[in-house]
Amino acid sequence: MDEAEVGQFGSLFSEFLERVVHTARAAPGGAEPLVDRIESFLGSDPLGLPVVSERFGAFEHATVQLAIDHLLARPGTRHQLVGVAGGGGREHHSLTELLETARRHGEFWIGAVDYATVPVSVDEERTCVRFGLYLIDDGRRRFAVLLRAGNPEHGVPAMLEVLAPSADDARAWLAGLREERAACNVLRGQVLSFEPSNFEPGIGPVRFHRRPELHRSEVILPPGTLERIERQVVGVASHRDRLASEGRHLKRGVLFYGPPGTGKTHTVRYLTGALREFTVVLLAGPAIRFVAEACALARTLQPSLIVLEDCDLVAEDRSFTPYGNPLLFTVLDEMDGLGSDIDACFLLTTNRVDLLEPALAQRPGRVDLAVEIPLPDEDGRHRLLDMYGRGIDLAASDANLVVERTAGVPASFVKEMTRRATLIAAERGSDSTESIDVHAAVDELMTANETLTRRLLGTDEGAERDWPTTDVSERGRRRGWFAYAPHPSRLPLDG
């Protein structure tokens, strides 16, 4: 055999092997090959057409599905939705690779569509396509769109891939989809937090929270304090058109500071309930690293509220470390990055205002209003006792004595005191909670055995108060804030 004959034999043998493999992997029961269906619909060979892809976050899956449904419902648009079956590693192949593998080896054919159930609110779920191929005719052009929800466990991102007569056609369809996504975003008007991904860096799914229902009378603050807060947070939202018409900026930042347990988070809950049209993003603990994503949502879904709880854990003064705090830089950059015409409000809370960087706490445009939430005075403790002590049979003289005995305690102490009084009454077999139970609860909480409890509630005895957050911040500087940050589940709307 000469070289030409050897080459011819090798070519024929390779073709033989390919046909053997193709026959072995033929679609079961005469199922239609993937390439044949697409080619029949488009009227041309799909392997010769361009594919334009676009990734999206896992938390955007329901919005992407809804936007596609809206586009498909437009007059003059027809479509088919088919699944892709067969072969191995389907989700790891791009659309181009699926088509090439299907043609060369016959591995993929038309099958059932894969679906997933995705939460879209606290009480509602939506069925979305997890892996499916749309064949779309909008009356002017035909194209194929592969929607895959992704598989973070195996490093597969959520993605749309558009196969069209030209790359410009594909990009135009994706641009129209982006406009529709902005208009029908399922996160709009929701209260949500970001969950970290279990399998890769970045955001995983979102967690929805029920919007709090707090009456204004339930916010116990010094006279005039709540009015100042409402003017800055709610007032700007109520008069946004007037402010915008006169060229006033809408973006604002409000800082709540004070000892633990005084009502900072409680005030945030009230504002979240009052701003019912606002999209609210809660960032606490490790989730603060998602501030860039939160600000991106704030731009798209304004009016919006971004809550950064315990921001002293990440926004300590840069002088404490030689290189500064990269996460602090991100927070500052993102706050500055939102345009002044964006109706977005940052609410920040801290127990240690002295640790905050002046650039965050004082510069207008980042924080426009800093409000101290102090320990309740005598009148405040009376109001707290009235609010938390509903159902307790407490004479006026006893109420005055309890208020006198609890001088210097935060609101959280009063709340726990009333609950413990009810438990004490139940343990002694009484059907009602009385003054004796309240005094017993005060006695119990004031004992030496409850020193740590008092510290955790935000109070302690002695002339000089050593707030426990001081220790946390000291440890945080030595070992990093992340280890001592709250777990993502400990968010301000869950308590």
Question: Would you spell out the secondary-structure blueprint of this structure?
Answer:
Layout: H1 3-24, H2 34-42, E1 51-55, H3 61-72, E2 78-85, H4 95-105, E3 109-111, E4 114-119, E5 125-137, E6 142-148, E7 159-163, H5 167-184, E8 191-196, E9 203-209, H6 225-238, H7 240-245, E10 252-257, H8 264-274, E11 279-284, H9 291-300, E12 304-309, H10 326-337, E13 344-350, H11 358-361, E14 369-372, H12 378-388, E15 392-393, H13 396-405, H14 411-427, E16 433-434, H15 435-446, H16 451-456, H17 468-479
Parallel strand pairs: 8-11, 10-13, 10-14, 11-12, 12-13, 15-16
Antiparallel strand pairs: 1-7, 2-3, 2-5, 4-5, 5-6, 6-7, 8-9
Summarize this structure as a short list of keywords or feature phrases:
alpha/beta; seven-stranded mixed beta sheet; seven-stranded antiparallel beta sheet; 16 strands; 17 helices; 495 residues; 3 domains; Helicase, Ruva Protein, domain 3; Rossmann fold; single chain; elongated
3D architecture notes:
By secondary structure, the protein is α/β, with parallel strands linked by helices. It has three domains: 21-184, no CATH class; 192-196 and 204-372, 3-Layer(aba) Sandwich (Rossmann fold), CATH 3.40.50.300; 378-458, Helicase, Ruva Protein, domain 3. 40% of the residues lie in helices and 19% in strands. The protein has 17 helices and 16 strands. It has helices at residues 3-24, 34-42, 61-72, 95-105, 167-184, 225-238, 240-245, 264-274, 291-300, 326-337, 358-361, 378-388, 396-405, 411-427, 435-446, 451-456, 468-479; strands at 51-55, 78-85, 109-111, 114-119, 125-137, 142-148, 159-163, 191-196, 203-209, 252-257, 279-284, 304-309, 344-350, 369-372, 392-393, 433-434. Strands 1, 2, 3, 4, 5, 6 and 7 form a seven-stranded antiparallel sheet that branches. Strands 9-8-11-12-13-10-14 form a seven-stranded mixed sheet, sandwiched between helices. α3 (61-72) crosses α5 and α12 (378-388) packs across α14 (411-427). The radius of gyration is 30 Å and the shape is elongated. The chain starts with a helix and ends in a 16-residue tail after the last helix. Mean pLDDT is 82; it is low at 20-25 and 461-491.
